User: Which sequence fits this backbone?
C-alpha cells in the first residue's frame, strides 16, 4: 500500500513454500529477531560487508543453508523471516526505502540473501558450488534452494542440473514455485517449460510434484531422501488469499495500482486479512 | 620470425609442472575446467590432484556459479579455459556471481588476442577492455615463461577475483626476475633515472613485449632515446614508475598490445596521460576496430601491424625522421636484446 504496488502475486504463491522451507531447514536459532542494518557499501577489497545469510543463524557443518534464487521474491522472504522470528517486523517499514538493505530486489546485504541473484537462474549454480565445497569438507548439512519456474527457461538452469547430477550432489534440495506466470504473461504463451518434472528427471535428478499450498506434503517432499539432487515442484495459485488479484490475470508479475479506487479495494482486502489473522 | 635465432631459452609448457608444484602445499586450490583440460595445460594437474579437480563440461555459465559457491566455502577455484570463454558467454555470471561479491576466483584465460590460429571465435581481442571495467576485478597478463611461473603467487595473494591472461606451449624466457604486482619492468631506459628525458616511451604488454624487444636495440643504436616498459598488471594501473616514465617522453608515447587499441593498455596509458596533463602525442599499436581471422602468429602480427616493423614505423612517424632499420637488423639484434633486457632490469 505504502509503495503503491509491488510483487504481490509472488507472495500469494510462495507464502507456504517459504514458510515450510524456513521451518524444515536446520538453521541455528537466533537469540532474538535481528534488525536490518542500513546499507553500508557493496563488497570489495577491505570492505565491511553484511551478508543476508546472517539472518539464517550461525553456519555449521550440520546446519542447512538456504539460497534464494529469484530475488524478486524479496518481500515474501522478509515476511517469512519475520514469521519465523529471524527478522524484526519493523524491517518492513524500511522496505524499498533509500539507504535501506530491505530492498525490493535484494542483493546479498538484504535479509535472507546469501548471494546476489536478481539476474535469474544463477543461484542454483552457486548453490551447487556451495554443496560441492561442503562435501569436500565432509559437512552433513543440506543446501536448500528456492527457485521460480520462469528460471527453467534459462539455459544456465539446465547446465546446473546436469552438473548437480554428474557430481552426484544429493545435498542439494530445490523447491520451485510453479506459479505458471512471468513478466509477459502466462508461461505457456511466453515460452513453455512443461513437462517440467519429466525434463528434470531426464537430467538425472529426483522430482516430487506437489500442491504448493499443502504444508505437510511440501515438508515431506522437501525432506525425504532420494540419493539424488532433489527438486520439489510446488504448483501454486498466484492469487492465493487475495482473489481480487485475479482481475489482473494473466499479467500478475508486478502490481501497480491504476488509481485511488483500486488502491482502496486492495486496502480493504488487506484490512480483512489482518482482521482474520 | 624464426624461433631458433631468437631466444636463448624456449620453455616448453612452463605452466604444467610449475602449477603442480606450486599447488602442493595449497589444499584449498581447486581446478575447474570446461572441456579444455589438456589444452590449458592442467591434464597432469588433474592426474596429480584428482580430488581437487572438477570437470564442469562445456557449460561456462554454470562453471562461474560453481566457482562462486566454492569460493564462498573457502576454496580457491582456478578456472582454466580459453580466454574468450571466460568473459564473452558467461559475462553476466562472471559479474553477478563472482565479481560483485569479490570472491577469490582465479580466471586463467589462454590464447590471448591473435596468438591462436583458431580464428575469430578463439581470439580474445577485447578481454582486457571488458575485464578492466568490472569492479573488484584484477587484471594480469604475462609476457614470458618467468611470468607464467611467478604470476601464481601474485594472483593467490589478491583478495578478490583475478583475470589472468596466460601463455601456453612454447614460451620464451625473457626475464630473469619474478613478476611483481602493479610494477612495470624497465627494459630499456634512456638515462640513469626513469625521469630523465627521452624521445619516445614505449609501453608494451604480453607477447608484444617480445616484438618490441626486437626493435628497440636497433633504434637505440641509431641514436634514438627510448624508454621501454613492460606492463603485466593492467588493473590496477597505478604504478608510479609508469607515470614517471610517461612524463619523460619528449616526442611521444607508443603503446603496443595484442588486443584492440580501445579499452586495453593503450586506453589505460591514455587515461594516465590525460589525468596528468601530459602534452605529447600517444600512438596506440593494436587491432584497430577489427576482428581477426585464423592464421599463424607471425602472419597475423604482420597483417595487423603488431610486429617489430610496425613499431619502427610508428616511431618514425612520431619523430618525423626515418631510422633506416632493415629487417635483418631486427632479427639479428633480437638475441642481443634479450641479454640487454636482463641488464636493463637492474636499473
Assistant:
Amino acid at each position: 500500500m505504502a509503495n503503491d504496488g509491488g510483487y504481490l502475486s509472488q507472495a500469494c504463491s510462495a507464502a507456504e513454500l517459504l514458510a515450510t522451507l524456513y521451518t524444515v531447514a536446520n538453521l541455528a536459532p537466533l537469540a532474538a529477531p535481528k534488525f536490518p542494518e542500513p546499507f553500508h557499501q557493496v563488497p570489495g577489497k577491505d570492505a565491511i560487508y553484511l551478508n543476508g545469510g546472517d539472518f539464517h543463524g550461525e553456519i555449521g557443518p550440520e546446519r542447512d543453508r538456504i539460497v534464494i534464487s529469484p530475488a524478486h521474491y524479496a518481500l515474501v522472504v522478509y515476511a517469512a523471516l519475520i514469521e519465523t522470528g529471524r527478522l524484526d517486523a519493523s524491517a518492513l517499514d524500511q522496505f524499498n526505502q533509500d539507504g535501506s538493505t530491505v530492498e525490493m530486489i535484494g542483493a546479498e546485504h538484504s535479509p535472507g540473501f546469501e548471494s546476489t541473484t536478481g539476474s535469474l537462474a544463477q543461484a542454483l549454480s552457486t548453490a551447487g558450488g556451495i554443496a560441492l565445497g561442503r562435501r569436500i569438507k565432509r559437512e552433513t548439512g543440506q543446501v536448500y534452494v528456492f527457485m521460480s519456474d520462469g528460471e527453467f527457461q534459462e539455459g544456465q538452469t539446465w547446465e546446473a542440473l546436469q552438473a548437480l547430477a554428474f557430481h552426484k550432489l544429493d545435498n542439494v534440495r530445490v523447491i520451485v514455485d510453479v506459479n505458471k506466470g512471468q513478466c509477459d504473461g502466462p508461461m505457456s504463451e511466453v515460452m513453455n517449460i512443461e513437462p517440467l518434472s519429466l525434463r528434470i528427471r531426464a537430467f538425472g535428478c529426483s522430482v516430487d510434484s506437489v500442491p504448493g499450498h499443502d504444508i505437510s506434503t511440501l515438508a515431506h517432499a522437501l525432506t525425504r531422501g532420494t540419493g539424488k539432487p532433489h527438486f520439489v515442484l510446488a504448483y501454486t495459485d498466484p492469487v492465493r488469499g487475495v482473489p481480487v488479484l485475479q482481475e489482473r490475470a494473466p499479467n500478475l508479475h508486478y502490481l501497480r495500482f491504476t488509481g485511488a479506487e483500486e488502491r482502496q479495494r486492495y486496502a480493504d482486502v488487506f484490512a480483512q486479512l489482518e482482521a482474520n489473522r | 620470425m624464426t624461433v631458433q635465432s631468437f631466444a636463448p631459452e624456449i620453455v616448453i609448457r612452463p605452466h604444467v609442472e610449475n602449477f603442480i608444484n606450486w599447488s602442493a602445499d595449497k589444499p584449498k586450490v581447486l581446478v575447474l575446467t570446461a572441456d579444455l583440460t589438456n589444452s590449458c595445460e592442467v591434464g597432469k594437474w588433474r592426474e596429480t590432484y584428482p580430488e581437487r579437480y572438477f570437470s564442469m563440461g562445456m557449460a561456462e555459465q554454470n562453471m562461474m556459479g560453481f566457482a562462486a559457491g566454492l569460493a564462498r566455502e573457502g576454496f580457491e577455484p582456478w578456472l582454466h579455459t580459453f580466454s574468450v570463454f571466460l568473459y564473452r558467454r558467461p559475462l553476466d555470471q562472471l559479474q553477478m556471481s563472482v565479481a560483485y561479491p569479490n570472491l577469490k576466483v582465479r580466471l586463467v584465460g589462454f590464447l590471448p588476442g591473435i596468438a591462436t590460429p583458431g580464428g575469430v571465435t578463439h581470439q580474445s581481442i577485447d578481454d582486457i577492455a571488458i575485464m578492466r571495467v568490472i569492479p573488484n576485478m584484477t587484471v594480469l597478463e604475462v609476457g614470458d615463461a618467468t611470468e607464467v611461473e611467478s604470476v601464481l603467487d601474485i594472483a593467490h595473494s589478491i583478495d578478490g577475483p583475478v583475470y589472468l591472461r596466460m601463455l601456453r606451449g612454447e614460451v620464451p624466457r625473457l626475464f630473469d626476475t619474478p613478476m611483481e604486482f602493479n610494477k612495470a619492468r624497465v627494459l630499456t631506459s634512456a638515462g640513469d633515472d626513469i625521469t630523465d628525458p627521452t624521445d619516445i616511451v614505449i609501453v608494451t604488454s604480453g607477447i608484444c613485449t617480445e616484438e618490441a624487444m626486437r626493435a628497440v636495440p636497433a633504434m637505440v643504436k641509431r641514436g634514438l632515446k627510448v624508454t621501454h616498459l613492460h606492463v603485466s598488471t593492467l588493473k590496477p594501473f597505478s604504478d608510479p614508475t609508469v607515470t614517471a616514465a610517461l612524463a619523460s617522453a619528449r616526442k611521444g608515447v607508443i603503446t603496443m598490445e595484442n588486443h584492440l587499441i580501445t579499452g586495453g593498455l593503450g586506453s589505460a596509458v591514455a587515461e594516465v596521460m590525460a589525468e596528468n596533463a601530459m602534452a605529447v602525442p600517444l600512438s596506440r599499436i593494436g587491432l584497430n576496430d577489427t576482428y581477426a581471422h585464423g592464421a599463424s602468429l607471425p602472419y597475423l602480427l604482420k597483417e595487423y601491424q603488431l610486429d617489430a616493423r610496425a613499431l619502427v614505423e610508428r616511431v618514425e612517424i612520431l619523430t618525423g625522421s626515418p631510422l633506416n632499420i632493415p629487417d635483418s637488423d631486427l632479427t639479428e639484434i633480437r638475441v642481443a636484446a634479450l641479454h640487454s633486457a636482463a641488464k636493463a632490469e637492474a636499473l
Q: What stands out?
A: The domain at 10-172 of chain B is CATH 3.40.50.970 (Rossmann fold).
